[in-house]
Specification:
Layout: E1 2-6, H1 11-22, E2 26-31, E3 46-49, H2 55-62, E4 67-70, H3 82-103, E5 107-111, H4 139-154, E6 162-167, E7 169-171, H5 180-189, E8 195-197, E9 200-205, H6 206-219, E10 225-228, E11 231-234, H7 235-246, E12 253-255, H8 257-274, H9 282-287, E13 291-292, H10 297-303, H11 310-323
Parallel strand pairs: 1-2, 1-4, 2-3, 4-5, 5-6, 6-10, 7-9, 8-12, 9-13
Antiparallel strand pairs: 9-11
Helix pairs in contact: 1-6, 2-3, 3-4, 7-11
Length: 334
């Protein structure tokens, strides 16, 4: 089958197109003019130049495709222009779904986020059915993704055979930007992580996450959500694992939230003046007040979501960042 993929040049999307090609599908990948296409360079796919905010380019791109994977999103914890983020994530999703409706695709998969789901925050895992409201969303990224998910759902009764996937925190290869989580790994490898906060995340190998998208297209029930996750780990446990992988000592000092929150507010104030990304993103610190633990048993049970050990995923991430110039050489090291 032919699949139209938005966000193919990004982290999840780049692994997704590889999984599609491995299964023998044809791929038409949406890419903005002038975008960084390093993640898909040399792959046997069709690059379709267009933009989420140019509906005519989406309609022409999806035409003739049987599958749609909408993975594209503006994923940042800080932006000087929140309106641009809402436009890409919310209105971009609306435009993609309108094009999917017009094309009559056989199956559509929308990549949301666990950030749009309910979460107790006390270490108990959230699930697809945990109660949540817009008021629970922290920061413009989560707010925009929450609204985008609602927009996507509006197209189900209109005839789009849509399945929603909610990735937790993917780690692994091809994190070109890198993502906020990838930046944590890079900072650790560059010995720029002297302390840690008492928080937690659910990690999954990005390649398993990509495979979960294909499984959602194949087995997912229309109108259902599936958490694509694996292991719940505290940040301290993540750093200890990175220490074992890299040989770099994990931070031993645990910082309380209040002074870091204050520093983040000050950082953000300067960023609004300079336009430069803050060293300590305020929304990242606010999110860290909750343990972002999730239960992916529904996706494992219904889709057969693979569960590659997270240690292997982190090992691949470390090797990829080192091989691609994200890690500074330390004097005396090879």
């Amino acid at each position: 089958m032919k699949a139209f993929v938005t966000g193919a040049t990004g982290f999840i999307g780049a692994s997704l197109v590889r999984e599609l090609l491995r299964d023998g599908h044809q791929v038409r990948a949406l890419a903005r003019p002038g975008s960084n296409r390093k993640n898909i360079a040399g792959l046997p796919l069709e690059v379709w130049e267009g933009d989420l905010l140019a509906p005519e380019s989406l309609a022409a791109g999806i035409a003739g495709c049987e599958l749609l994977f909408h993975t594209a999103a503006d994923y940042r914890l800080w932006t000087r222009d929140p309106a641009a983020m809402y436009a890409a994530n919310v209105e971009g999703t609306r435009a993609v779904m309108e094009a999917a409706l017009l094309a009559g695709v056989r199956k559509a998969v929308y990549t949301s986020s666990v950030g749009t789901l309910g979460n107790p925050g006390d270490g108990a895992p959230g699930s697809e059915s945990t109660p949540v409201t817009f008021a629970d969303m922290v920061g413009d990224y989560k707010k925009s993704k929450f609204l985008a998910e609602r927009v996507a759902e509006e197209f189900i009764p209109r005839g789009v055979p849509l399945v929603i996937v909610n990735p937790s925190t993917p780690v692994g290869v091809l994190d070109i930007k890198p993502t906020p989580t990838g930046k944590i790994i890079v900072d650790f490898l560059n010995r720029a992580m002297p302390a840690y906060l008492d928080t937690g995340l659910n990690l999954i190998d990005v390649e398993d996450c990509a495979r979960g998208h294909l499984l959602a297209a194949e087995k997912g029930r229309i109108g259902e959500k599936y958490i694509l996750g694996n292991q719940n780990l505290t940040l301290r446990e993540i750093f200890r694992t990175l220490e074992e992988i890299s040989g770099i000592p994990a931070p031993k000092v645990r910082l309380p939230h209040p002074p870091i929150l204050l520093a983040a507010y000050i950082n953000e104030a300067f960023s609004r003046i300079t336009g430069k990304e803050p060293l300590i993103p305020l929304n990242g610190v606010r999110m860290a007040r909750k343990f972002m633990f999730f239960d992916s048993s529904k996706a494992i049970r219904e889709l057969g979501l693979p569960q590659t050990p997270v240690t292997q995923a982190l090992t691949k991430a470390v090797a990829w960042f080192r091989a691609n110039g994200y890690v500074k050489k330390v004097k005396g090291e090879g």
